[in-house]
């Protein structure tokens, strides 16, 4: 066991300097992601008891993200990518400060906090995606995302439980509000540390300066449709667990405990899949994740009780990393292919990809809000996730089409010839 651990450490050390720095940066920043994803939603629920405000906050975030992706393209012409990446991380702390300073959670205040968080995520994800693309290749991307997801999942074990217990240890609304303020201060400090780690990297800005195009290769349009289906769940899936737990399981203590169940097993599974799987395994990984998500969402809708929520969270802990582990390498491989064909910079595709995600997010959040206002809150919480999860199963078919066309267009004949053999053998 010890020798195996040493072997894995040596494998990590064999990666490039920038690979390791990006992983370390994301490791530090990962400490705040559960706070942003879960407890901001719980804070809104605690102070308003209105799930629609949580989804509106999420919509504000997702409106800010594509706008910032676009802005980032222009900023990269003049500002070092490390600065923009660092600013993006620190803005998440600023957004939480804005939220905590609101005396009443009205729609304007929630919108301002949400847009600010969207600016943060836009700068963070646009630059993170480009850096991940530039420092990896198709052979080590499974490992990169497997390792990154392993780190995120492990952190998701301790942080939600610790924060949930910390909040629950406080008595009275004033003390609980003070607990949220302390958490916000810690988040801001961690984002500063993550920025300091980022500055140790030797990251280079994209060379090509034109990022906006309106016509693309047919393969890219297939990926955009896949992005739209991915965005469907993102529309409110980030905050859905918090809403379900707050409504059905209880308060923040239960939230942290529920999020931690099964996370260790999920982290180990994801790491080894990323470490030892091949590019030809991505469809299988993607399919398993989508099916588990659909199963969990359907059971939640059927049961709609404490057991249903816990089963949904358990399956989601495994399903979401599996989907991401397969999706991101597929996305980056398509960018590799179409950028060479169309002779454009990679960031143009990262920017355009966000448009597909945004369309899906609007449809996903819109599904929830329509059910919420037209029918009822319980119906929205019970069925919206299931509807979206079942629709996402279409992604399996689309991803197979992408892989097939990508194999035909890939410039790397030696590697892809091997994948073609595996495909013919029935592995895809």
Question: Could you explain the architecture of this structure?
Answer:
With about 425 residues, the protein is mainly α. It has a single domain (about 15-200, about 210-425), classed as Growth Hormone, Chain: A, CATH 1.20.1250. About 85% of the residues lie in helices and about 0% in strands. It contains 18 helices and no strands. It has helices at about 1-15, 15-30, 35-50, 50-75, 80-100, 105-135, 140-170, 175-200, 220-235, 240-250, 250-260, 265-275, 280-305, 305-340, 345-375, 375-390, 395-410, 415-425. The longest helix is centred in the C-terminal third of the chain and has 37 residues, at about 305-340. Keywords: Membrane, Transmembrane, Transmembrane helix. One of its GO terms (molecular function) is transmembrane transporter activity. It holds the Pfam family MFS_1. It comes from Flavobacterium panici. InterPro entries: MFS, MFS_trans_sf.
Defining traits:
about 425 residues, mainly alpha, Growth Hormone, Chain: A, 18 helices, about 85% helix, membrane
What is the topological layout?
Blueprint: H1 2-13, H2 17-29, H3 33-48, H4 51-75, H5 81-101, H6 107-135, H7 141-168, H8 173-198, H9 218-237, H10 240-249, H11 252-260, H12 263-276, H13 282-303, H14 306-342, H15 346-374, H16 377-392, H17 394-409, H18 413-424
Helix pairs in contact: 2-7, 2-8, 3-4, 3-7, 3-10, 4-6, 4-15, 5-6, 5-8, 6-15, 7-8, 7-11, 7-12, 7-14, 9-15, 9-16, 9-17, 10-11, 12-14, 13-14, 13-16, 13-17, 14-17, 15-16
């Amino acid at each position: 066991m010890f020798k195996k651990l040493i072997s894995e450490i040596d494998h990590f050390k064999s990666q490039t300097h920038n690979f390791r720095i990006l992983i370390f940066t994301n490791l530090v920043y990962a400490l705040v992601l559960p706070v942003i994803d879960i407890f901001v939603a719980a804070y809104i629920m605690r102070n308003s008891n209105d799930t629609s405000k949580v989804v509106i906050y999420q919509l504000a975030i997702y409106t800010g993200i594509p706008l910032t992706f676009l802005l980032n393209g222009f900023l990269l012409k003049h500002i070092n990518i490390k600065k923009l990446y660092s600013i993006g991380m620190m803005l998440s702390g600023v957004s939480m400060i804005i939220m905590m300073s609101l005396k009443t959670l009205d729609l304007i205040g929630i919108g301002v906090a949400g847009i600010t968080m969207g600016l943060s995520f836009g700068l963070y994800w646009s630059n993170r995606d480009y850096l991940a693309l530039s420092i990896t290749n198709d052979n080590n991307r499974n490992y990169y995302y497997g390792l990154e997801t392993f780190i995120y999942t492990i952190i998701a074990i301790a942080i939600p439980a610790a924060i949930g217990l910390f909040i629950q240890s406080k008595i009275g609304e004033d003390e609980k509000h003070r607990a949220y303020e302390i958490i916000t201060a810690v988040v801001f400090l961690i984002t500063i540390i993550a920025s300091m780690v980022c500055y140790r990297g030797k990251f280079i800005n994209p060379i090509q300066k034109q990022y906006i195009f309106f016509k693309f290769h047919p393969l890219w349009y297939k990926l955009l449709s896949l992005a739209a289906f991915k965005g469907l769940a993102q529309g409110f899936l980030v905050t859905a667990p918090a809403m379900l737990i707050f409504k059905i399981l209880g308060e923040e203590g239960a939230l942290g405990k529920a999020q931690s169940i099964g996370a260790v097993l999920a982290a180990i599974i994801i790491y080894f899949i990323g470490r030892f799987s091949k590019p030809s395994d991505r469809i299988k990984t993607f399919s398993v994740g989508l099916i588990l998500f659909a199963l969990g969402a359907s059971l939640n809708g059927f049961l709609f009780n404490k057991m249903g929520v816990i089963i949904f969270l358990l399956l989601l802990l495994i399903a979401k990393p599996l989907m991401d582990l397969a999706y991101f390498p597929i996305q980056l491989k398509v960018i590799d292919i179409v950028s060479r064909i169309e002779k454009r910079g990679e960031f143009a595709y990262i920017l355009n990809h966000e448009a597909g995600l945004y369309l899906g997010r609007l449809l996903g959040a819109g599904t929830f809000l329509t059910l919420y206002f037209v029918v009822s809150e319980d119906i929205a919480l019970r069925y919206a996730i299931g509807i979206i999860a079942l629709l996402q199963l279409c992604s399996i078919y689309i991803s197979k089409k992408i892989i097939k066309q990508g194999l035909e267009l890939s410039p790397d004949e030696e590697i892809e010839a091997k994948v073609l053999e595996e495909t013919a053998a029935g592995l895809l």
